[in-house]
Amino acid sequence: MKKKATAGLFLCVIWALLTGCAEFPRQEPADTAPVSSESNSSAIQREPELSAPSEIQHEPESSALSEEAVQVQTAIIPEQILDGETGEIHYSCYLPENYDESTEYPLMMVMPGYDMMWFGEESSGSNLNWRGFLCWTELPEDMIVVSAQLTDWHETSAKQAIELTEYFLDHFSVDESRVYAAGYSAGGETMSQAVSMRPDLYAAYLHGASQWDGEYPPIAENGVAVYIFMAENDEYYGSERARDAYQGLYDAYESTGWTQDEISAVLQIQTPDNEWFAERNITGNYHGGGNVMFEETSILEWIVSHSKEGEMQ
């Protein structure tokens, strides 16, 4: 009997210790403690002029811009969301300072490379300071510029690029004969598909440091102008892919009945060597250096000189 009492007392002590421990909260080490939303937001730097005004209402089903919002804010409008048929489309856009819905503006849809795609909130707005986005806003002619942060470089993103294009055509004052596209690296893979899927939408396309994943015949059949830019020594794709794309497009135009002179007016290729890049202070990483095409005014002007009406601007 004494042994049973001792055993019972021992079990009671163990139970008290266990239940007592449960009353103390778990302490996380300082280096793994959750980061506050305030400190986390500082990871993405925002220029003062990029702050979205309170007048722009974000509807629960979509935060895409409305025409009412346009009356409040122009210039760069960051980090918008369009609820698309295939999911959320994250994008930023630029509207000319004196945007007037009675005036029709050219529209540029430009897609960045892998490191500026959408990987969650921490990547939001990573394309805002990209020259591929900003360069079009600095041209003498006012135009609307849109850059999306898509999630891949395959058919889904191509469809989302098209859907975003159509959204701006439907909701903003766009010159439908002057809708342009540009893509760098992964963005080029996406836009080469989008442009060939809906060649009726786009007048010209700048294909930079990328491989061509779209079809060739639809481009020629719809007279879409294409400028291909790739470093001769691009480390990722290699310039041979640029030449293959050029030849595929050239053959498609030729099969459609275009003459050599007519083709040269709508199809260009540039594969600069290391010396060309060195003159622009780029001496390595020629794939990343391909972004310099957005600093070449002659290339930008060539793109926006085309229209669906078949006339050079």
- The class by helix and strand makeup works out as alpha/beta
Give the spatial strand order of the biggest sheet.
1-2-4-3-5-6-7-8
Q: Can you tell me the CATH architecture? A: 3-Layer(aba) Sandwich
> What is the highest CATH level, the class?
Alpha Beta
Low-confidence stretches: 1-62
In total, the number of strands is: 8
Shape: globular
Largest sheet: 8 strands, mixed
Radius of gyration: 27 Å
Total number of domains: 1
Beta strand %? 15-25%
The number of distinct helices, counting runs of at least 4 residues, comes to: 11
Q: Approximately how much helix is present in the residues?
A: 25-40%
End-to-end Cα distance: 106 Å
* CATH fold annotation: Rossmann fold
Structural overview:
With 313 residues, the chain is an alpha/beta fold. Helix content is 35%, strand content 18%. Residues 1-22 form the signal peptide. Keywords: Signal. Pfam families: Peptidase_S9 (PF00326). Residues 34-44 have a biased composition (Polar residues).
How would you sum up this structure in a few lines?
Keywords: Signal. With about 325 residues, the chain is α/β, with parallel strands linked by helices. The chain has helices at about 1-20, 35-40, 65-70, 130-135, 155-170, 185-195, 215-220, 240-255, 260-265, 275-280, 295-305; strands spanning about 75-85, 85-95, 105-110, 145-150, 175-185, 205-210, 225-230, 265-270.
